[in-house]
Amino acid sequence: MPDFLTETRAGYDALVAEYVDLFMDDLETNPFDQSVLQLFTDLVPPGKVLEAGCGPGRITSWLHRRGLDISGVDLSPGMLAHARATFPDIVFSEGDMRSLDVPDASLSGLVAWYSIIHIPAELLPGVFAEFRRVLAPGGLLLVAFQVGDEILRVRDIDFRRLDPAVVTGLLAEAGFTPVAQGSREPRETEKVPQAWLLARAGQAVLG
User: Fold this and answer.
1) Angle at 17 between CA 99 and CA 76, to 5 degrees
2) Which part of the chain is the Methyltransferase domain (predicted)?
3) Residue 63 structural domain
């Protein structure tokens, strides 16, 4: 396993209790993020949905309560243990978003909510290609991230801020068509703007 994955997994395993205390209920007081997630819920085609980088399951659960057939995958066994104990009616699996244990074109939707921020820039094209592989044509992708060009290292985890224009370009190269995008100013303890992108998977490329 590459060093960045080992460090990210160990870092989140050590942060489970603190993360849950800080963020588990954050969505309930954040109408901006709720509106984006509701837009995804309204636009995603019927079928199976996956959250890649689900952490303790807070976003997966929110979407599940709104009727989506959703499961979660995460790198951190500690985060997954909390998710499974808290939301026993949802399937949570351990995995790596660079290589998802999901059949080709089997998903109608995929959410990467502040999870691509841990992927080194040179590996993002491969991650987006993997997202395209598992999404059926017309499937909907939602990604969210902090805006900027810095790499912050906190508790042995790298947090990469991203340029929305760069992310849009990489998604286009991977076979996605933009649907909508937006950003908002920082809230409370946040230091930089936050961005989100919705994109549709295009037709599969043969050969």
Assistant:
1) 15
2) 49-139
3) 3-201
Those residues of the chain that have pLDDT short of 50 are: 204-207
What is the structure's pLDDT at 23?
A: 87
pLDDT of residue 207: 34
Could you tell me if residue 12 is inside a domain?
yes
Q: Residue 22 is encoded by which pair of tokens?
A: 């800080």
Position 91 in a domain: yes
pLDDT (0 to 100) of residue 206: 37
pTM > 0.90? yes
The answer as to whether 78 is a domain residue is yes
> Residues 8-20: pLDDT tens digits?
999 999 989 999 9
In this structure, what CATH number is given to the domain that contains residue 96? 3.40.50.150
Q: Is residue 206 part of a domain?
A: no
Contact 167, 142 (CB under 8 A): no
The alpha carbons of the chain give a radius of gyration, in whole angstroms, of 16
Cα–Cα distance, 170 to 168 (Å, whole number): 6
String of b and e for 158-191 (b: at least 16 CB within 10 Å)?
bbbbbebeebbebbeebbbeeeebeebeeeeeee
Domain count for the chain: 1
